[in-house]
Write a structure and sequence with these properties.
Layout (H helix, E strand, L loop, with lengths): L1 E6 L4 H13 L3 E7 L19 E5 L5 H10 L4 E4 L6 H6 L1 H23 L6 E7 L23 H20 L3 E6 L1 E3 L8 H10 L4 E4 L5 E6 H14 L4 E5 L4 E3 H16 L10 E4 L14 H7 L7 H14 L1 H7 L7 H6 L3
Parallel strand pairs: 1-2, 1-4, 2-3, 4-5, 5-6, 6-10, 7-9, 8-12
Antiparallel strand pairs: 9-11
Helix pairs in contact: 1-7, 2-4, 4-5, 6-8, 8-10
The protein binds nicotinamide-adenine-dinucleotide and thymidine-5'-diphosphate.
Length: 349
Amino acid sequence: MKKILVTGGAGFIGSHVVRRFVNTYPNYQIINLDKLTYAGNLANLQDVESKPNYQFVKGDIVDADFIDNLFNQENVDAVIHLAAESHVDRSISNPIEFVMTNVVGTVNLLNTARNHWKNDQNKRFYHVSTDEVYGTLGETGLFTEETPYDPHSPYSASKAGSDHFVRAYHDTYRLNTVISNCSNNYGSHHFPEKLIPLAIHNIKNNKPVPVYGKGENIRDWLWVEDHARAIDVIFHQAKPGSTYNIGGHNEWKNIDLIRLLCKIMDEKLGRPDGTSTELISFVTDRAGHDLRYAIDSSKLQRELGWKPSLQFEEGLEKTVDWYLQNEDWLNDVTSGHYQSYYQQQYAGR
Ligand code: NAD
Ligand code: TYD
């Protein structure tokens, strides 16, 4: 039995990766290591928690002794590393936390893996990263695996730093590493501080939907289950030291995306067409806001045969359905001291 340590498995993308691996590979033992920050939620994994090949361990990747003990206890064969602080706005107000988890936490994991695995090329360290490390595009062009790194936010700088350390451990110590850089994900179990789930939450509750600046920034959206499938393919087939971009060929201006979402929400909630667009509220732009991200994932398609499975409109509708059918989840994660990041930081601006 192969033991795979998935870090950040209680988060948005991590929970989809854990679910996919637990259900697809009964011969793998999946250990979900997560600190359960505000973004981690074990309710995301209720459907797999009683499976014999799943186990949860609560812990912090910044704690080197803890990670070392875990590797001593469990004979870990591979790491799929997703644990991170992931929200750009939070990184602007608290960059140090991002350095700690995203850089120091990643180096702790690399170091422990290197010490335990020595040069065993059958062990694999898979680092999940973002297209934001490449910086911003103008009106044209796509990020390829050769695009130079040019991060602008503390979040993307911390992810770029972690990517560099992963490559350094491959080049210096021959650790069997793989990196993938993915575009913006959307789908179920997404914490309602990122654009799409925040907008769904606010429209549902008749609250303003904050659109930064003029809403002209562009993101390339990918269905989260397509990302989990790409991680599966890359984990099993990529060569040591390789990098793959993952993206949906699905660019949307924020304002167009929000208008489409408003239309879908009006239909689903039985409100007259145009009701939800009234909630759109243009607010002060994010500092250092990258204009456009767009991924060229042709290497992944060409070499490993992966391509996105879902049209955006269909995926967005499925996502809305999930949030409307899972009110308890949404109420739970937004209860207590929850305020959306925007409410906390920018209210009254
Ligand atoms: P998320 O914020 O939903 O989840 C992060 C998870 O990591 C949470 O469960 C949290 O509890 C856990 N965590 C945070 N700090 C930890 C620590 N110190 N020790 C252990 N666990 C810790 O994030 P996500 O959107 O699911 O992103 C997962 C990964 O994918 C991240 O590495 C992110 O950079 C990358 N990524 C995200 C996107 C996206 O669109 N969300 C796109 C490309 C890449
Ligand atoms: P977000 O979901 O935070 O992802 P990222 O910044 O990592 O791309 O934001 C997606 C886009 O939406 C980005 O251009 C910022 C913008 N945005 C808003 O306009 N309003 C919001 O309330 C949020 C959270 C984001």
